[in-house]
Amino acid sequence: MKIISADYVLTMNSNLDCIKDGAILIDGALIKQVGTLQELTQQYPEAAVTQYPKSLLMPGLINTHCHSGLLRGTAEGLPVWDWLQQFIDPMHRVVTPEDSKIASYLCYAEALLSGTTTIVDMWRYMEGSAEAAQQLGIRAVLVPYVAEHPDHNYFETLNSNEALIQKWHQAANGRIQVWVGLEHLFYAEEKALARIQKMCHEYQTGFHTHSNESKFDVEENLRRY
Predict the structure, then answer these.
(1) What separation in angstroms does the CA of 55 have from each of 8, 20, 100?
(2) Looking at 92-96, 131-135, 205-209, which range is the least confident one?
(3) pLDDT of 2-60, one tens digit each?
(4) What is the maximum alpha-carbon separation in the chain?
(5) Do residues 192 and 185 touch, judged by C-beta distance below 8 A?
(6) pLDDT for residue 76
(7) Residue 108 pLDDT more than 90?
(8) In whole angstroms, what is the distance from residue 216 CA to residue 50 CA?
(9) E strands along the chain, which residues?
(10) Which of 25, 34, 51, 149 has the fewest other C-beta atoms within 10 Å?
(11) Distance between CA atoms of residues 74 and 97, nearest Å
């Protein structure tokens, strides 16, 4: 067992208690107890103690929507639909599995260094993303960029999404999950939307998409469906 301590421990319990001169008792991979450093060292005098002065101990941050990628800062200031058509969609036509894998390693490393321990990542060729998550130790929900529409046939497909679920869902002792993804709701024909629902039920997994990002997004969904 070991004890790690800091100036403050933010518990995120029901009272949102913040413990001054706090500490955490760790047994293997489990947090066994949280309290003050004095309390825990008295109860467990045999435990090794590591102190982090001028620091805060807290649960890991969770990023509920991100994209591995190397295009951050590209053409900022454009309306979202113009940005997608002029910059992002052309990138999807040429991105390679190796590009995607390298981007995921960068994204996940940056997340861990910033204290983010769980991410929901919507990206391409996510075999490489799964390998990066497995190796780096981050908790990841992987969501392939899927399109099932003849106007958007340069993304992932429900077939490749299903193959990723079958290989990687609940891998790394459950640390890696694979959800069903869709770039936008109108990037799929109705039969694909029905299959998405079926896949979510069959594999007992989630669904993730973009919605209501712009006026055009809302109007196009209403027009089609």
Answers:
(1) 7, 11, 35
(2) 92-96
(3) 999 999 999 989 999 999 999 999 999 899 999 999 999 999 999 999 999 999 999 99
(4) 68
(5) no
(6) 81
(7) yes
(8) 54
(9) 2-10, 18-27, 30-36, 48-57, 61-66, 116-123, 139-144, 176-178, 180-184, 207-210
(10) 51
(11) 21
What does the alpha-carbon distance between residue 113 and residue 169 come to, in Å, rounded to a whole number?
25
Residue 74: pLDDT over 90: no
Tokens at 39, concatenated: 């309390």
- The phi-psi region of residue 165 (left if phi > 0; otherwise alpha if psi is between -120 and 50; otherwise beta) is alpha
Return all residues near 115 (Cβ < 8 A) that are at least 6 apart: 58, 60, 61
Percent of the chain with pLDDT over 90: 82
- Residue 61's Cα: distance from chain center in Å? 11
Mean pLDDT (the chain, rounded)? 94
Token duo for residue 183: 């770039």
Helices 158-168/190-203 angle, 10° precision = 10
- Reading the block at residue 17, the tokens are 């208690």
pTM of the model: 0.89
